[in-house]
Amino acid sequence: MPAAASGPRRIGSRVVAFATSFAVLHAVNAIISMSFNIVQFFVLARVLEPSRFSEVILLTAISFYVLPISQAVGRANFVALRQSADEANMARAANEASAILYLHGALMLLLACAVPLMVGAGNPREAIESVLYVAVCLANNLWYYDIQPTVWALDLGKRFERVSMVRRLIMFCALPLLWITGSFLTFVVVMAAATVAFMFVLPRYLPLDARPFRFRPRLGPLRWRDARAYLGLFWPALLSSLTELVVLNSPYLLFALAFGAGPAIVAYDTVMKLTRLAMTVARNLSESALPRLSRMFFSGDKAALGRLLGLLFGVCLAEGVCLAALMVAAGPFVFRLLLGPNDVIPPGTQYVAACAILTGCIYQPATYFLAFNGARDLIQKMTFAAVFGLAVFAGLVLSGALGLTPALWAYTAYFAAVAVLSVGLSLRLVQRMGGLTASIPPGAAGATS
To answer: How much is the average pLDDT of 300-327?
Structure first.
């Protein structure tokens, strides 16, 4: 009887282990975050006056445009901690990472306080609302793009995901409060309070003796030589973030200049919304594989790295094929569902969207792999190619030689070229791993506790 019962117990323990794994927790958090953003947009659109709602959209955009800095800090911290080969170097890198997080957080707080000066405010109440709302948006950048990769590098991803899940669920509770009271000020005060509270909760939830990273930097040991070394990691991380900004966001301005702020912008934005949806799934898959990929990279395990990277590309591509097939089969219906009476999408755009979705699903894992492993020279090549390709694309669009549909196809071709190049550079990075001597930090075998 005990032997027979051991089988179900083993199955049950495996189910529990899978349900509480880093990949599952991260996926659940991604779903909660996407749901929160959609519901928040829905509620704000119905609670705020049209003019104030437009202002809030503008305030939200501020966090998008400074996002590359947060991405660069998080990626540089990740590489700095991952490539630290001994306890002394780990302590130094962790201290630098802490100091950088404080510095970046202080700059973001100053930016939030300056918001009323930049966009104006109708009255003191709206000024306070704007400052708190932008501060929450920028703090979300700090949480997900600065702190999250830093904690991942310490193999504490599961702990971070648990805290993030509670944090986001508490913020979800602020949305019914906004809906019932109609008070945007009350909403942002609750959100800001939760944001500050969890900045204190997270370091206390991390194990005291597992890693030297404590969110309490010591300024005395910081040296200029170490700062220069960190800048050497920050620069390629910033380039990779700016490349994403160039490739994915700059065409908005080009389409507006060439075709006006009408159907062209709606068509491009709709294609990119569907593409970003696919890329969100691919990004989640990439982030789930990131701790193992980086361990294999910095330990020089070339064969295992190649297999896992190939599996990641295959899964992301399979996801892209499914969504692309849906667009080919039912694209016009999807456009009508999304846009309703504002459906001004030109015929045939579903095929453009299908190709863009496929492209995004290979672009995302490739750029993540390059960015989080400090491939400076390869990232510089990708950035140069992206900027050069954008210049060619801009010349074609602004010359008036292309109509709207050909311009959408031209953008998709440009996006695909950058994506193929990023995949090629990722494979190049794997091929030249033979000379790596770096090892993973002590105790990294703990995966993502």
So the answer is: 90
What is the residue whose two structure tokens read 């709602």?
53
Say if residues 154 and 19 touch (Cβ distance below 8 Å). no
pLDDT tops 70 at residue 143: yes
- CA pair distance 363, 368, nearest whole angstrom: 9
Residue 48 has pLDDT above 90, yes or no: no
- Which residue has tokens 């005060």? 189
Q: Which residues contact 15 (CB under 8 A, 6 or more apart)?
A: none
Rounded-to-5 percentages of helix, strand, coil across the chain: 85, 0, 15
SS3 115: helix
pLDDT digits (tens, 9 = 90+) for 333-360: 988 877 766 677 888 899 999 999 999 9
Of 184, 209, 189, 226, nearest in space to 45 by CA: 184
Average pLDDT, the chain: 81
Number of H helices, E strands in the chain: 17, 0
Q: What is the token pair recorded at 354?
A: 């299908």
Q: Which of 14, 28, 1 is nearest to 287 (CA)?
A: 28
**Contact in structure between 346 and 405 (CB atoms under 8 Å):** yes
